[in-house]
Amino acid sequence: MGLAVLTVNAGSSSLKLRLLGDDDAVLASHDVDPWDGDVVDGLNEAVLEADAVGHRVVHGGTDFCGPALLDDETLGRIEALAPLAPLHQPRSVAGIRAVRALLPDTPAVACFDTAFHATLPAATSTYALPAAWRQRWPLRRFGFHGLSHQHAVRRAADLLGRRPDGLRMVTCHLGAGASLCASLGGRSVDTTMGFTPLEGLVMATRSGSVDPGLVLWLQTEGGLSADEVADGLERHAGLAGLSGTPGDFRWLGEGEAAALAVDVYVHRLRREIAAMVASLGSLDVLVFTGGVGEHQPSLRAAAARGLGFLGVAVDRQANEARVADGEITAVGAAVRTFVVTSREDLEIARQVRSALADRSEDPARG
Description:
This protein is of the alpha/beta class.
């Protein structure tokens, strides 16, 4: 379907707009950083000529298992999910409202980070909680970063010159937020994030998984309020909490605190990659993506050094030189390892075109 699609990625502090043509070439772009959630001024006129708009939305809950055409009712359901992703969902809603004010008559589609993980089997998605709780609330593992993981799976398969069918792949989205996904034949079967984006790996300012009893102790014995615990785990933990820095991998510095931060990060990363492989049974492809995954060769090398028993090994020169999509596998390694640029915009545009094509074929769905 020949559409120029404007992709809207509203982050915790920034707004990224990309206008993609039929061939997915970037026709125009506009970044606002910092962005306060208001209507965007000073846009390139080309951006405003979009035929359709696609919005990244972090949480789709149990309501949205694929892209959804945006109207007032859909937007209200998205906004109601804000308690499940308090750092992200309000920003997604603000992005939708801001762009809608500029392009009120342009069809828009919401694309959800949780949707790729709708295929998680029950054994993966179910928490071992009291039945009454699970019946009353949607307490399950949702998973996140789905747009990035889905693109990484497609792109790695392209680099291999084959379809994802039959491939057992672990994709590592490593940025300020971080998660892993185990995919079989292009479908998500396990992931590290859960009910919220707080579970799993150590991240820039998020703790990742901790003992639930520790959280309870902080409130019952430590005297912290629920808000104080949430703020600490979301904004002051992770690499930031361990190193005493803002948590950006590039600026951890040196010294014992920085070394410990890296050691904890790498240990959790190796452990969770191995767990993803256990869910798959074996591994064909390992992919690094996201800002850290793409630009920190020392981290990729450190992760690979602990995964030799799985058949992972990276070539030192290829790993250090890699600046774009490509392979870094060492000669003779059983597992193929790739670096893939995170292009959520490409996956959003693909889903927008698919959703609008479905609507045109079945007007009742629109």
